[in-house]
From TrEMBL:
Removal of H(2)O(2), oxidation of toxic reductants, biosynthesis and degradation of lignin, suberization, auxin catabolism, response to environmental stresses such as wounding, pathogen attack and oxidative stress. These functions might be dependent on each isozyme/isoform in each plant tissue. Pfam families: peroxidase (PF00141). Transmembrane segments: none annotated. Heme b binds at H214. The lineage of its organism: Eukaryota, Viridiplantae, Streptophyta, Embryophyta, Tracheophyta. InterPro entries: Haem_peroxidase, Haem_peroxidase_sf, Peroxidase_pln, Peroxidases_AS, Peroxidases_heam-ligand_BS, Secretory_peroxidase. One of its GO terms (cellular component) is extracellular region. This is Peroxidase. Keywords: Calcium, Disulfide bond, Glycoprotein, Heme, Hydrogen peroxide, Iron, Metal-binding, Oxidoreductase, Peroxidase, Secreted, Signal. Belongs to the peroxidase family. Classical plant (class III) peroxidase subfamily. Belongs to the peroxidase family. Ascorbate peroxidase subfamily. The record marks R88 as: Transition state stabilizer. It is found in: Secreted. It comes from Microthlaspi erraticum.
Amino acid sequence: MKSAVVSTVVLLVILVAWPVSAGYKDSPGAEGYKGEEDEGDTRSWFPLDNLLSLSYYDKICPSFEKIVATKVREWTKTDPSLGPALLRLLFHDCGVTGCDASVLLDHEGSERRSPASKTLRGFELIEDIKSELEKSCPGLVSCADILTAASRDATYQLGGPYWSNAYGRRDSTNSYAGDVEKVPSGRRDITGLLETFQSYGLNILDLVVLSGAHTIGKANCGTIQSRLYNFNATGGSDPSIDPKFADYLRRKCRWASETVYLDVVTPIAFDNQYYINLRKNMGVLTTDSELVKDPRTAPLVAAFAEGPPQIFRQQFAVSMAKLVNVGVLTGEDRVGEIRKVCSKSNSRAY
């Protein structure tokens, strides 16, 4: 009973956090999707000083949204796993130096060449979109905006929410492998994760909500084997994992090169099952398990687990709209550019 009361209170807090226009139902229609609803419209949320605009491409590249949506649909139809991969690629971009497409640069010593980035995917799709846009709108669309739009469209195609993006980002000319250490890993504790999120201007609600991206996608077994075999030199598994689930993971992860779904119950559905799993001690990553144990995040996990999936979807859209504004470069930033090819800087020779 006490848990239900706490969850109800938390849900009320989440409702207050929604933007005033959260109920707006205006997907891009003929220019993109003809979706049933725009669950995360954030037009009234964007700060006024970041120089991004919801209508940035309306006149200079009106086909931008349609081209991105079409290409994402084509690629993910052939390989559905690219949907979660694009979302992860965006997180790795924004989590380093901001949403500046630095993760796409491919040269010696770049983020992309870091060992921590070796499992990232989706680069070819972004390049394909860029190539198509260069035919229609040469030199006008940044790779950072393409990645922002593509990850949103991929999420929507997986059954996730649609949200309005503001555009006008420019691309970084620099990328350093050492910066990848800033990306939150699956082994960090909640305090470390929260400090990282706060440095982005995000809060504890955003941390819990964006962790919900683990409702889709897979984890590499190499990242969790330390939880399954000889945990802390005990000879057994991490005791915070349900024993039956730990046995299932051991059978799936005999080799580090294998993968396992982050949500083993509804692995291809964008729903709130992830949070239900956490409360059953079925979190795959260490950070997943920590969310349900830490008193600062556990009530939010309970709220999303017990509430209707729509609440999670709605807040995910709002938190994503905040994330893609982190550390953006705009027209006033002299260090930014609009790349001709997403993997190469126009102005630097490596």
